Amino acid sequence: MVGRINVGGGVATAAWAYIAVTYPAGSTCTATNGTITLTAQGTSGLYVFQIPEPTTTPETWTVTCTDGTRTNSATAEISAQYSSVAVTLVYGRLPVGYQEVEYLQSSGTQYINTGLSIPYGGNTWGTQFEITFMMLSDVTHAVGGVVYSTTNIHLGFPAVLSNTALYVYGSQNVSGAPTPVVNTKYTVLLNNSSHQLIINNSVIGTYTTSSTVNGAADVYLFGAHNTYGSGSVSQRGSTRIYEYKRTINSTGVVEQHLIPCYRTSDNVAGMIDLVGGTFYTNAGTGTFTVGADV
Question: What is the pTM of this model?
Answer without folding.
Answer: 0.72
